[in-house]
């Protein structure tokens, strides 16, 4: 469900993460049409049903709308709603694991945050 899905996540979650990241980066803005199910499936070597499942989850969450016979389009406010959901997910699920790993390795969090990658 997050833009930064791990490689061991189900394929539809990874696809959702890819699309989420594109929306958050502004590659898809309000009113923009998302790639067709077949086009995205071909691009990622995925089953079209898997792509449809990822798209359905965006529709269920209110980030996109389907225009019958035309395609799927990003709704106004989707990027901000998605950013809020991603932040919440990161703080609740990813950050505690990252913080624990930092402590386990004896790293200094302030030093890490000051590092340039």
List the helices and strands and how they pair.
Elements: H1 11-25, H2 37-44, H3 48-60, E1 64-67, E2 71-74, H4 78-104, H5 109-114
Antiparallel strand pairs: 1-2
Helix pairs in contact: 1-3, 2-3
What labels describe this entry?
117 residues; mainly alpha; two-stranded antiparallel ribbon; 5 helices; 2 strands; elongated
Distance between the termini: 25 Å
Oligomer category: single chain
Radius of gyration: 17 Å
SS-derived structural category: mainly alpha
As a percent range, the share of helical residues equals 55-70%
Q: Taking strands numbered 1, 2, ... along the chain, how are they ordered across the largest sheet?
A: 1-2
Average pLDDT, all residues: 91
Q: Main sheet?
A: 2 strands, antiparallel
H/E series: HHHEEHH
Poorly predicted segments: none
Please state the overall shape, judged from the principal axes of the Cα atoms: elongated
Enumerate how many helices there are, as a single number.
5
The fraction of residues assigned to DSSP E strands is 5-15%
Q: What is the number of strand segments?
A: 2
């Amino acid at each position: 469900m997050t833009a930064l899905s791990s490689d061991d996540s189900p394929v539809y979650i990874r696809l959702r993460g890819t699309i989420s990241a594109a929306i958050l980066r502004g590659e898809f803005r309000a009113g923009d049409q998302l790639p067709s199910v077949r086009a995205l499936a071909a691009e990622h070597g995925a089953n079209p049903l898997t792509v449809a499942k990822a798209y359905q989850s965006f529709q269920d969450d209110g980030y996109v709308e389907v225009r019958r016979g035309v395609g799927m389009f990003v709704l106004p406010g989707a990027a901000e709603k998605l950013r809020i959901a991603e932040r919440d997910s990161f703080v609740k699920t990813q950050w505690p694991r990252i913080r624990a790993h930092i402590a386990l390795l004896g790293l200094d969090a302030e030093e890490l945050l000051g590092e340039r990658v």
